[in-house]
Amino acid sequence: MGLEGARVTVVGAGVVGLSAAHDLAAAGATVLVVGDRAAHEGVSGVAGGLWFPYRVTTPPGADDVLLRSRARFEELADRPGTAVTVRAGTVVERTAAPDRSWTAAAIGPREARADELPAGAASGVRASLPVADTPHYLRWLRDRCGHLGVVEQRAQVHDLDATAAATAADLVVLAAGGRSGELVADPDPGHPVGGQVVRLRNPGLVEWLLDEEDPAGLTYVIPRGEDVVCGGTADPWPATTAVDPGVQEQILRRVVAAVPALAGQDVLGAAYGLRPARATLRLGPVPGGAVPVVACYGHGGAGLTLSWGCAEAVVRFAAALLGPRTADRPGPPTGSGPVDDLPQFV
């Protein structure tokens, strides 16, 4: 899908923004990423790296985003240097009618046997899912973007029209996470959901575990390379983003109860991040700007999970909005493009 001659500014330098920038540049666009911090310094750097649609709802018409992201990560797992693997694991279920919609995009899902589940579990699903060793993966992604000619600039954006003018953009992609809604006066700007994690030295684990309904609290264990990301919490509108030592001890008790091999392992670090929650993912054109704007935000705890599927959708929207007019046009457009003729995934 050619975007040759198009100048695109991506607002947001997290995993969603960088993935969109990658695919836009691969499609021929000249891409500038503007963000107030590097990907590893924001919530993307805190992510455990497990592909799973946690706390996100994809709107009607965007069902393929999840499947396409999983497929792209599976492809990356076959490439050296990406820090992506495919690992088996278990989703624990504790209700009579659990939501299994995610299994449509999983690899080889099957019913978990009783001996594969913790005490008190009603049921569970065994499946193989992609896992990204997030710090190394983000480094790889930034390198790939650089190889494609993507340029990063550190700045905080307060006005999309002013940013488009300053960067001579033909189109703006809004992927600024929790700040996105305020930049387009979204009536549903979303809200932060805090999450605390602790990283332990990996004693040789290869399988992940997710137990959202553990009576003791949200519990997940995600082995990567040399560490295991253990969580967690889900705190709407948290008063602070500081790591709480007491909460860390609670997390450690839960994960050791679930995976005894973690007992006594060295603590390598801890972090707290803000998931950009919204009633539904917003993915599509935003009318009224000086140049066309494509929104891509509201990923909840699934920014990495949805990143590549959203990137592909952003490219399709960009191509439809800009059409063939960028390659032979001397200056940036002054209109907002045929926004009303395109689907709105909001």
From TrEMBL:
Enumerate the catalysed reactions: a D-alpha-amino acid + O2 + H2O = a 2-oxocarboxylate + H2O2 + NH4(+)
Q: Does the keyword Oxidoreductase apply?
A: yes
Q: Which family does it belong to?
A: Belongs to the DAMOX/DASOX family.
List, alphabetically, the PANTHER family matched.
Answer: D-AMINO ACID OXIDASE, D-ASPARTATE OXIDASE
- Record's superkingdom? Bacteria
Q: Molecular function terms in GO for this entry?
A: D-amino-acid oxidase activity; FAD binding
* Pfam families, A to Z: DAO
Specify the protein name.
Answer: D-amino-acid oxidase
Xref: InterPro entries: DAO, FAD-dep_OxRdtase
Alphabetical keyword list? FAD, Flavoprotein, Oxidoreductase
**TM stretches of this protein:** none
Give the enzyme's EC designation: 1.4.3.3
Q: Which Gene3D superfamilies match?
A: D-Amino Acid Oxidase, subunit A, domain 2 (3.30.9.10), NAD(P)-binding Rossmann-like Domain (3.40.50.720)
Q: Where is the FAD dependent oxidoreductase domain?
A: 7-315
The protein's required cofactors: FAD
Recorded source organism is Klenkia brasiliensis
Q: Name one GO biological process term.
A: D-amino acid catabolic process
Q: What GO terms fall under cellular component here?
A: cytoplasm
Q: Which residues form a coiled coil?
A: none
